[in-house]
Design a protein that fits this description.
The protein contains 9 helices and 8 strands. By secondary structure, it is of the alpha/beta class.
């Protein structure tokens, strides 16, 4: 495993890179970094070139200038692909990273081979009530603190990726061409009806609702997750599983 710093016009992006084979880009959730994928990196690097990105404003990547948006982070992903000279990539995105994967897959379909999205939502009201309340509360608090603390102002932008910046539409999801695996826990912070709606809109998709699992199912049940995600990446299906 090695660390790579990629220079962009608006700061540097950090990636952890390991393994050889078809490229697999990992996109972490809001407020996290690439280390959330520890169990996935060790598993998938046996068969893939795993590129675990710290997205803009997270981990070792710079925040850059201006407001954080999905459009700007999607441009960062294009920068990563250019750096590694990749025409297409498999993407695995968790939580907010799953939302970003959906955005990238819909706006740059020619760049995506396969998608795996875990605990994603394309509308803010896809979050369960308690989680949505928490997002709004944190945003308001950071708005106040951000008036005199730069760190809080930047943190508010990160939180806002889950609220005002989440601008996916039904038409966006219908534009996704890549085979897509949609995963959520039975006890996820995302409404199950919302997860099923994503499955309905992404035409070429499979759905897996993992029993007795939370939003962090890929950490809690990493062996099970890694196994069915591997099957999907190799076979485009989950023929060995009774998925929902």
């Amino acid at each position: 495993m090695k660390g790579v710093s990629i220079k962009t016009e608006d700061g540097n992006l950090y990636c952890s890179v390991s393994g050889v084979g078809d490229p697999l880009l990992l996109l972490h959730g809001n407020g996290e970094d690439h280390q959330i994928f520890e169990q996935q990196v060790s598993h998938f690097s046996k068969d893939f070139q795993v590129i675990a990105l710290d997205t803009r404003g997270h981990g070792r990547s710079d925040h850059g200038k201006g407001v954080l948006t999905f459009q700007k982070i999607a441009q960062d992903i294009l920068s990563v692909l250019r750096y590694f000279n990749l025409s297409k990539v498999n993407i695995m995105g968790f939580s907010d990273g799953g939302n970003l994967a959906l955005y990238f897959g819909s706006h740059y379909p020619e760049k995506v081979n396969k998608l795996i999205v875990i605990g994603a939502n394309y509308k803010v009201n896809g979050l369960k009530k308690d989680s949505l309340t928490e997002v709004k509360r944190d945003y308001v608090l950071l708005t106040v603190l951000g008036s005199f603390l730069l760190k809080a102002a930047k943190k508010r932008q990160i939180i806002d990726l889950m609220w005002h910046q989440l601008d996916l539409s039904s038409a966006d999801l219908m534009a996704i061409e890549a085979p897509t695996l949609i995963v959520a826990g039975e006890d996820d912070v995302i409404e199950e009806s919302h997860t099923r709606k994503i499955h309905e809109l992404v035409i070429n998709s499979e759905l897996m609702i993992v029993p007795k699992a939370s939003h962090f199912l890929m950490v809690e049940k990493y062996e099970e997750f890694n196994q069915f995600a591997t099957e999907f990446l190799f076979n485009n299906s989950l023929s060995s599983y009774n998925y929902s």
